[in-house]
Each structure stands twice: as structure tokens, then as C-alpha cells.
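User: My instructor asked us to take a sequence, write out its structure as C-alpha cells, and then describe one feature of it. I'm not sure where to start. Here is the sequence I was given:
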Amino acid sequence: MPKRLFAVFAAALTGITAAVQCLTPKKAAALSFTPNTVVQSNAAVLYNIDVDTIVYEKNADMKEMPAALAQIMTAVITLENCSDISGDTVTATTEMFAPFYDYEYQSDLRYAEINAGDTLSVEDLLYAMMLTSSCEASIMLATHFGEGSESNFVDKMNAKAEELGMSNTRFTNATGLYSARQVSTARDMMTLLKYAMTVPRFESIACAMNYTPSRAAGLGKTDKWNWKHSNTMAVSGSDYYCNGVRGIKTGNLQEAGRSIACKASRDGNNYLLVCLNAPLNDSDGKTHFYHLEDAKTIINWAFTHLSYETVITENTELDELKVENADGVDFVILKPKTGYSCIWCDTADISSIQKIKSFDSDVVRAPVKAGDKLGTLTLKLSGETLTEIDLIASTSIERSFWKYNLAEIPGFFKSKYLRRSWIIALILSLIYIGICIYAAVRFRMERKKCPQRPRQPRP
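Assistant: Let's start with the prediction itself. The C-alpha cells for your sequence are:
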């Protein structure tokens, strides 16, 4: 019984949620466009922060190893589990670094010159990890906030991934080093990145250009601990410099190519980008940073060709419907309940968006109130529905007393209620006539049984 009750409750809750979603009009949406150049990364997602939507994707749900982009989750778990990142410290031990000595792909390792015995604040370690992909920093944080075990920390990473709805993601380590079982997708990593940007201190750390711990000078490590961000797109003069780009994380694995996650802002427009598994080398076997090249191409394309366009406003007059029995004006103008805007590419014709109108009824009768729903506007592109918007009356139309009553007269004689009244009246009349005939017959029969006395002459 409790299970059945729970099932009924869940079904009801789902229905209510769906109803609320249906009642909530979509004011802005987006379409996915494609750059006019080749993107070498296996998967990519470009997200517009301002309108909260993905505007470009390539193999967004293909599973890939996230490489050091997994350290974004390491940073999130650390920040959410540490109340004082500048005061909490961690001391490196030889045991923490043991897994790196026998790691198969040594070129994957990124070091921040942190040695056993070094003590750094959590804040220092976050900068080292996010700027340089430091394997030492990530394992130190994982051990410290995993209660002495990286495995415990990874459990927290996976729990967070599930909470965020990253259904195609599985973490097996906090460093982002090779593991065939550590997989994610560009869409899931974008989900993580969007969330990470809301975590206090994450963005300021992940987008810093360089950082040196305050204790570096006292230890004589100012040169060694002068950490610079690995994303050279943010470095003026770099071959891959891209105006407006900041941070956030790069990564590479011999078995999973190069990856990048970054933020870009220009002229009030803001984007987040994730690219996964770009080739390590060109066709001649030479080292090539295709992940930076892809990121620069996609971002420049977005800033050049994408803009926020209004397809229809809430004041647009779309049609008019005749109103029966109206007092005065006998038609009502229809307009959309809400406007509709989207990110649009200037290489596409915005007039190709179809505006399909449908009406709730063929006949509109007065009175009509401004805001009454009289139909639906469906916007479509290439057969795909972008959104549906209620069509509403733009003004109120009162009902004419005389028009209404005159119009009702013919209907009165044709109504089923009148026919029923006639039938009932006929039946009652027949019953009445029958009763009368019966009474007359009885009266005559009674008179025959009792002959009348002769009348006496009057004196």
C-alpha cells in the first residue's frame, strides 16, 4: 500500500511539474550553428552565458577522457569542503607522490615543483592545480579532503557529478591522469563548468594569469613557484592569443589528446567553451596545439557571426479574428503573449523561421477580454519546433445586448431544449385528454345506473 501511495504521489507531482512547465512561456531560446572551418577536437560545446543556452556543439555526448579538465571537479569539491582556503594548509609527503613514479605516460605529468615536506595553503594548491595542472597539488588536495584517501575524494567527485546530472561521467582519480574508466562528455563537462563558475573563488583562481605563494620568498622558491596559466590564448603576443579569453583549464593525455575549457567575453557577450580530445600532432608527426587553434576559431566565429536577435515582439500584430455579437468593432487583433529572441548566425536567413498560427475556435463570440487566449503561434525551423507562444486578444470587445438576443432567436427554435419541451407538452396534453375522456365515460356510465327523477312542475 505505501508503495502504491508513493507511486500515485510521484505521478501527481510529475503531472503538476509538467503543467507548470507548459504554462511557462519561453522568452528566449537558441539554435545550434556550425563554424565555417574544420574543428579538429573530437567533441566541443560552446555555451552562451547571457541567454543560458548552447549555441554550438560537436559530438557533445560522445564519451572522452577529460584529462586535466577533471581537476575542475577537484577544485569544486575542495572549495565546497574548505571554509578557510588561505588558512588551511597541507604538507606534501613522499607517499602522496608515489603513484607518479610508475605512471606509464610520464609526458602526461605536469609538475609545479612541489616536493615532499613542502607546506602550502589550500589556496596555493588550487592556483598550482588550475594554472599548471600540477599533479602534486591535485593529489595533495584529494588526500587532505578525502580523509587521507584519494578514493574517498573520488567518491565525492562522483556524488557531485550525479547531483549535477552528469549522467555520462565517471571519475576514477582527482588528477585527470590516464584511466580508461575515467570518462565524460563535452556536454557534461560544460554542465560542470557552468556550476563551477557559481562556486565562490573558483573563477578568480581559474582565470588568474599567474600566481606566486606568499611563502615562496621565505623558502627561496620564488622562481620555481611562479606559476603561469597554461592557456596561452590569454597571453598577449602568443600565437594563439584571442581577445577576451580567460583561463580556465587545459589538459593533455597521450591516450586522449589535448583538451581545453575557457571563458571568453567581448562587447558584453560572454561564452564558455569546452573542447575535448584534439590531436597531439599534425600529419607530419610534429607537435601541434589543435585545442588552442580550435578554441580560437570557435570563439572568434561566435563573436563575429553570432548575435542576439529578436524574432518577434509581444506587441507584434499577427492576425485578426471576427467577433460575433460585438458592440462596436466586430473584430479583435491577435498578438503573442510573449516575445521570442534567440542567438542567430548572420550567415543564415532569419526569415526562414516559420510562423504557424492556429486558432482555438473558428468562431469568436463577444465578450472578449484583453489577454484571452485565442490561439497558438508555433515557430519552426527546418521542421523543428523552436517554441510555442499563446496568441491573445490585444483589446477587450464588449457584447451587444440586442445583437446577442436577436442572434439567439433562431437558435431558440432549433434548440434541443425546445424540441424536448414540445414533446413533453404533447405527452402531457395527451395524458390530459385521456383523463378527460375517461372522466366523461365514467360520468355517463354513472348516469345510466342512476336514472334521474322526473321533475315536479312549479306551482
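For the description part of your assignment, you could build on this observation: The CA atoms of residues 376 and 390 lie 5 Å apart. Try explaining in your own words what that tells you about the chain.
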